[in-house]
Write the structure tokens for this entry.
Amino acid sequence: MPFRIRPDQRFDPGRYDWNEYYFEFETNHSRKLSASANFLGGGFWNGAQRTTKAALLFRPSYHLTLDVVLQRSDIDLPFPMHPFVTNLVSPRIGYAFTTRMFPDTLLQYNTDLKQLTANVRLDLIHRPLRDLFVVLNEPRRTDQPTPITTGRGLILKY
């Protein structure tokens, strides 16, 4: 069964080998304000990729964490497929009510697919290594006058 990476592009079953190189820079994440940047290059299935990512993390208090990630991927694929660029914008907010209960919300916008995805997760720690996760995922296409929900999932994990 083919693997789709975009609605109009797919890879047939088979063997794909490639090499990648990765560079990363990070500041101290225990500080109130920290940042990171990385670059990934190399193969991508039967083509090539160049991905850059920058992140900024702000921790104004012990309870609250805010961060935003910007990522750009340039993908070159051989004929009959075509190259494409994907930009992801991902803001996140996390709050710790206690050391055992904390929600986390991630929004992600994909400029290539015109899709906004919301991921809301609640982590309840019953005791060490006994977490209950309640997760809601909802992607929406934004290329229509009224955004269309393309799926919704509620996940419980203990």
Notes: The chain has a mean pLDDT of 92. DSSP finds no helices and twelve strands in the chain. The longest strand covers residues 64-76.
